[in-house]
Design a protein that fits this description.
The N terminus is likely disordered. This protein has a 5-stranded parallel β-sheet with strand order 2-3-1-4-5. Helix content is about 40%, strand content about 10%. By secondary structure, it is of the alpha/beta class.
Length: about 200
């Protein structure tokens, strides 16, 4: 007769041989999405629910600070692409994973190689945030950052730089396709938060 294994209590962490509990894998939630769609608000929502925050763009900002350069949108794109071409398209994801300690939301994912690297961690999910370009342009104007785009046409043209065919550059359109879930942020903040809550 084959002996039966004792059941693990519901919700309890599994045990290694010898009775030691195995720490659960941290939850990793990646954020990708179009400019001014609401990724920052989504990140803030998840941090209020206990997630730590990391951003691939912050890795690029660190490089800019070392060179004494301002972190405007154009310089972020150029420097991020330069890092990918020099060190591999997944370099930003590799660097950010070294900093993960527990449940973490990882912002500013813009290349499929970054997604592939992050998926090597158990439990990783990719969330895309999007909204109509007209709404996003209005938001970008209100937040007052250096967007290098004064008109809707310039705003749309700048976005095309994030949809490169070069695997060593930003390929945002491919990241959107790889998402496990997509949230359209085209209404009120309350509705956006309800959509995010449903993903937890």
């Amino acid at each position: 007769m084959t002996p039966t294994r004792p059941r693990t209590p519901s919700g309890a962490a599994p045990r290694k041989p010898g009775g030691r509990r195995v720490a659960p894998e941290p939850r990793l939630l990646g954020l990708t999405g179009t400019n001014a769609a609401g990724k920052g608000e989504a990140a803030a929502f998840f941090t209020r629910r206990g997630f730590a925050y990391l951003s691939l763009s912050d890795i690029v900002r660190e490089e800019l600070r070392k060179k004494g350069l301002e972190p405007g949108r154009d310089s972020l794109i150029r420097t991020g692409n330069a890092l990918r071409r020099r060190f591999g398209a997944d370099v930003l994801a590799r660097r950010v994973l070294r900093r993960v300690r527990g449940d973490t939301v990882i912002d500013s994912i813009r290349n499929p190689a970054e997604v592939a690297r992050l998926r090597t961690r158990p439990g990783f999910r990719l969330l895309a945030v999007d909204a109509p370009v007209e709404i996003r342009f209005e938001r970008a104007q209100r937040r007052g950052r250096d967007e290098s785009a004064r008109t809707l046409e310039e705003f749309a043209a700048k976005e095309r730089e994030e949809r490169s065919a070069d695997p060593g550059a930003q390929q945002l359109h491919l990241c959107l396709r790889l998402a496990d879930a997509t949230v359209i942020n085209d209404s009120t903040l309350e509705r956006f938060h309800k959509k995010l809550e449903a993903l937890l």
